[in-house]
Amino acid sequence: MEGYQLRIALKEIPAVWRRVRVPAGITFRTLHRVIQFAMGWQDCHLHDFSSDDDPTVYTDNSEAIEEYEYYLKNPEELARVHEVYPRDADEIERQREDRQHPPAVRQAKVCV
Questions:
Q1: How is the chain split into domains, by residue range?
Q2: Order of all β-strands in the sheet with 90-95
């Protein structure tokens, strides 16, 4: 089972960032919760997910068929995905990690 190591950073404030590890099959809804926890946020703003090469935008209200079908057909697109908060336009980068994580890490969402 493959996992990802993410560097979560505020686009306009480079000194503020976190690194977390998540399983490869994580949904955007769960990833959003991980990001909220890691940054100490309280889920007070609307948000969406998108990638550089795909015009589809995923919100917390539409976790399903579009996301699932697209990434089944294009798993390489998971290499770079953004979560954007309107107005502030904070950008969070999701970068695919090349190495495998031990089983204990794969099962837990951890802040590194």
A1: 3-111
A2: 54-59, 48-51, 80-85, 90-95, 3-9, 17-23, 110-111
Q: What H or E segment, with its residue span, contains residue 95?
A: strand 90-95
What SS3 class is residue 76?
Answer: helix
Length of the chain measured in residues: 112
pLDDT above 60 for 65: no
What's the rounded Cα separation, in Å, for the pair 37 and 5? 16
Topology of domain 3-111, CATH: 3.10.290
Alpha helices in the chain, H assignment, sequence order: 28-39, 65-73, 103-107
Give the C-alpha distances (Å, rounded to integers) separating 46 from 10, 58, 63, 85, 86. 16, 12, 14, 6, 7
**Digit-coded pLDDT (tens) for 43-62:** 877 777 877 787 777 766 55
Phi, psi of 33 (to 5 degrees): -65, -40
